[in-house]
Amino acid sequence: MLAEMITRLFERSLDDAAQAAAREGQWLPALWTEVEEMGLPLALLTEDQGGFGLSFAEAGEALRLLGSHAMPLPVAETMAANQLFAAAGLALAEGPAGIARADDLTLSNGRLTGTVARVAWGEQLDCLALAVGDTLCRVPRAGWTIAAAGTSANFHPRPTLAIDWTVDAEAALPWCPLASGATVRAFQIAGALEAALDMTLSHTATRVQFGKPLQKNQVVQHELAKLAGELACATAAADLAGEALARHDVLGVAAGTLRAREAATAGAAIATQMHGAIGFTREHRLHLYTTALWAWRDEFGGQVSWAKLLGSAALAAGGPGYWPMVTGL
Amino acid sequence: MTAIPFPAPPADSAEVVALRAEFRTFLDEQLKDRTPRQRSDNWYGYDRGFSRAMGQAGYLGMTWPKQYGGHERSAFERAVIVEECLAAGAPVGAHWIADRQSGPSILKFGTEAQKQAFLPRIAAGELSFGIGMSEPDSGSDLAATRTKAVKDGDVYRVTGTKVWTSFAHEADYVILFCRTSGTPADRHMGTSQLLIDLKNTPGLTIKPIIDLAGQHHFNEMHFEDAVVPADMLLGEEGQGWDQVMSELAFERSGPERFLSSIELMVQLIEVLKGRDSDAAQITVGRVTARLAVLRRLSRSVAGMLQEHQNANLQAAIVKDVGALFEQALPDIARELIDAEPDPRAAGAYASVLANIVHNSPSWSLRGGTREILRGIIARGLGTR
């Protein structure tokens, strides 16, 4: 039901012109208003916290739809920020929000200073859910200036923020914002791969070469099968990360995000190859998804960091402890 | 959107958690003398004593009705037993096929007399089965089966040849896929399944096929006017194709489709102990992520099969992605550790590596080749 509402809204309001404007760094106020009116920023909250109390599957579907429509605005980030704020007992965001953890931040005598790199739409946000050590700070827009510009692989703003704020809202950190970010990105990756598979099926069914649709070639069919395998893995990986996040298990999040990132890489490559040259253009919508996949797979902790986290835990478990560790993920 | 549903497997119940702990203790005791090299045989380790111990302890025929010796537990509880066996390198070969697919087929299609005759003995770990599908001229193209069974009074007279039959020289029975009418040109029509007593069928000869590692798992079964009692027909005459297809979802989605080389991972981690570089951490992390997700996909299919949903497409995906994973492990290990594979080495790592290198090519052939599986997946996507 929520899924149908989201789909209708995005099909109506998230057209090619909106996507092109977002790629130029233009905020889409009308679209954001519609997203807020639908209540999407509260979608990960329980009913007690003022959310809709969506089931795990419904919340996952909402996140996947952000991916399958290549949503350019920080809706997933705002959902994750509100989930953190609610868990920590802090006030919810009153507009778009970001989540971050940064190493070069100092909190002394209540004053928070330092920089936070590559925050999606950092100039437009209402507030930031910022982890400083074991503390979650709610930093409003007045708490930062833009230190440097930055752009994601799908051409959305990722500025570096210079923070200077006397903290008036803080709480014990419920869990790491990077785990939240990596989890929502895993769902978005699964959604984007779903869209990429759809487009690839449709393109190879209609594009005729050598007198027959591409799809009638066995070699093309096998690539489609591989793409479906990557989609299955990304979907399961996102679910795995989501369940792990719910029990605050960062190793499970690591496993889910890593496999989703691998699927993003492999899936984008197959989809592009199967489209031929048209998939390399802005003329065809495939680029909305491939460039998003190339952006999302490296955000909220890099692949190397997540792999080292999970790998060092596996090595520490030792040979005999390896399987029990895997069944705990 | 072309979503391929993989429903979330349920969280482990208290019973499942308890079962896993209890079963790990059982395996520790049973396998305490098993070497890493033996463990790396994984699901083709064959030990009747271990299978009887499994049966006596109630770990076979887990989901079957109690009246046939089963234990009426869930598909997920069975999945725990299966994955723990594989992860520990238990020698499951003597009950593997019977517990996984022959027993379920007999339960689904068998006569009351067949159920009573076979199922309690399988559940006790006493009756070992092989698969009787492939032929010299029909490997991937199963519908081209030529082996012919002709009804003659109260017997079938069987003529033809089956190949790649694992453990036919050890096992007690196979379920033979054969033609009871028409010709190979009729494809799926006119095929049937017969229960064949490997130890007691006049006209049946079994010859070894030695694999590239010099091991004897495979066999050729030659039927020369072999006499099989007519009451050994499984299911309906002419319905063999549908019956055999329902067997395959069980055969393609289980954890054996990604755990075949798990002992190499265990030994790799042991070798890396104390010298885990960044590269080691990164690689082991990525392998672990793939493994965890495959396990989730496989458990998802177990849930679909428990609900009697058609999971043929999902099972094909699990096997395709799973085989890529288990076949990739030797090369992943080779990028981290300098070691020559040595089939006769005394040391654990070199001998396990050799066994995995030798056996891994078969994992994308058995149970449906990679090419067949991708065809099934493509058909599921609507391309053919």
Task: List the defining traits of the structure above.
heterodimer; A: alpha+beta; Butyryl-CoA Dehydrogenase, subunit A, domain 2; Butyryl-CoA Dehydrogenase, subunit A, domain 3; 4-stranded mixed beta sheet; B: 384 residues; alpha+beta; Butyryl-Coa Dehydrogenase, subunit A, domain 1; 4-stranded antiparallel beta sheet; 12 helices; 8 strands
Task: Please characterize this protein's 3D structure.
The complex is a heterodimer of chains A (329) and B (384). Chain A is an alpha+beta fold and 329 residues long. Chain A has ten helices and ten strands. Among the domains of chain A are: 84 residues, Butyryl-CoA Dehydrogenase, subunit A, domain 2, CATH 2.40.110; 142 residues, Butyryl-CoA Dehydrogenase, subunit A, domain 3. In chain A, the strands form three sheets. In chain A, strands 1-4-5-8 form a four-stranded mixed β-sheet. In chain A, strands 2-3-7-6 form a four-stranded antiparallel β-sheet, with no helix packed on it. In chain A, strands 9-10 form a two-stranded antiparallel ribbon. In chain A, a hairpin with a 2-residue loop joins β4 and β5. In chain A, α4 crosses α6, α6 runs antiparallel to α7 and α8 packs antiparallel against α9. The radius of gyration of chain A is 20 Å and the shape is globular. Chain B has three domains: 114 residues, Butyryl-Coa Dehydrogenase, subunit A, domain 1 (Orthogonal Bundle), CATH 1.10.540.10; 108 residues, Butyryl-CoA Dehydrogenase, subunit A, domain 2 (Beta Barrel); 130 residues, Butyryl-CoA Dehydrogenase, subunit A, domain 3. Helices cover 45% and strands 14% of the residues of chain B. Chain B contains twelve helices and eight strands. Chain B is globular and about 70 Å long. A four-stranded mixed β-sheet of chain B has the order 1-4-5-8, covered by helices on one side. In chain B, strands 2-3-7-6 form a four-stranded antiparallel β-sheet, with no helix packed on it. In chain B, a hairpin with a 5-residue loop joins β6 and β7. Chain B is an alpha+beta fold. The chains are: A alpha+beta (329), B alpha+beta (384). Chains A and B meet through α4, α6, α7, α8 and α10 of A and α4, α8, α9, α10 and α12 of B.
